Amino acid sequence: MTEMNTETTSKPLLEVRNLKKYFPVRGAFGRLGKTLAEVKAVDDISFNLYKGETYGLVGESGCGKSTAGRSILHLTEPTSGHVFYNDKDIFSLSDNEMRKLRTELQMVFQDPFSSLNPRKRIGDILEEPLAIHDRGSKAERRNLVLEMLEKVGMQREHYYRYPHEFSGGQRQRIGIARALILNPNVLILDEPVSALDVSIQSQMLNLLKDLQKEYQLTYLFIAHDMSVVRHISDRIGVMYLGHLVEEANTDQLFDSPLHPYTEALLSAVPVADNKKKKDRIVIKGEVPSPMDPPSGCVFHTRCPYVMDICKTVTPKKREKDEGHFVACHLYEE
């Protein structure tokens, strides 16, 4: 877990409120066809991100966490909800205002190869954001890029090479350099280490922690690996089928998980000490389709503690302990 570097935790830097993103499923003729159904990728999630912290957003593949990250930055058009950054509603900004705001909010994508233009040299890729936002002269931009390459563990001569000449870990370092080149305040990291070898993952996580400390960065760290999230996060939100089902400080979540889904996720995390090893909880059944999610609690079809109320009433997120929130009928008074 990182050492949280916040001057105050009373006022969030980024507020996500009732965020929804539904994708229409259309019939024949594509966009002209009739909407047959909706894929509810993100379904009414809310959380806060405080200055200097790392908030881990975790869940199995297809739960909607990457869509949430892209929607927060307005890279994907949200269906409804609000995202406030320094009290500004991002979704109400004009294109020009949003363009200016992107210097403060940046994203590192999961696949570093597809996110880099294969026809451009690394120097040109990293200089492009500076040129778009009219930062410095050509010589100043080049010097800044060379300095940033060294900051992320690359060499100056890499400035002249193409993306295909690098390994996956090196390309991800380049992706991080591109996100940092405009000196943002917030980075949304979408599965930044999932495609890397385990040995490279640890190097990348340590790099991210060092950069966070040096540049006073705030991270939204999206991942499916609980061990990785535990290593870097101050707080963790657990997503299941588009819903945020639990939220707590990292130690609090790992020591005393409340939601049955979180319990199952943590039981699968490898533990070196056999005395601390917990019995594996196997979740039965398949993940329901986000096109036709279950009524009531979306986890009730796989939950070992299911009650009648779970099948009809959607549980509300409530604070069970200080800073520990859960959306589950088991904890209703």
UniProtKB/TrEMBL annotation:
Which keywords does the record carry?
A: ATP-binding, Nucleotide-binding, Transport
According to the lineage, what is the superkingdom? Answer: Bacteria
Q: Cross-referenced Gene3D superfamilies, in alphabetical order?
A: P-loop containing nucleotide triphosphate hydrolases
Q: What PROSITE patterns has UniProt attached to this entry?
A: ABC_TRANSPORTER_1, ABC_TRANSPORTER_2
Which InterPro entries does the annotation name? AAA+_ATPase, ABC_transp_ATP-bind, ABC_transporter-like_ATP-bd, ABC_transporter-like_CS, Oligopep_ABC_C, P-loop_NTPase
Q: Which residues form the ABC transporter domain?
A: 14-266
SMART domains attached to this UniProt entry: AAA
Query: Does the keyword field hold ATP-binding?
Result: yes
**Pfam families, alphabetized:** ABC_tran, oligo_HPY
**GO aspect biological process, one term:** transmembrane transport
State the Gene Ontology terms under molecular function: ATP binding; ATP hydrolysis activity
What's this protein's family per the entry?
Belongs to the ABC transporter superfamily.
Q: What is the protein's name according to its record?
A: Peptide/nickel transport system ATP-binding protein/oligopeptide transport system ATP-binding protein
Species source reads Saliterribacillus persicus
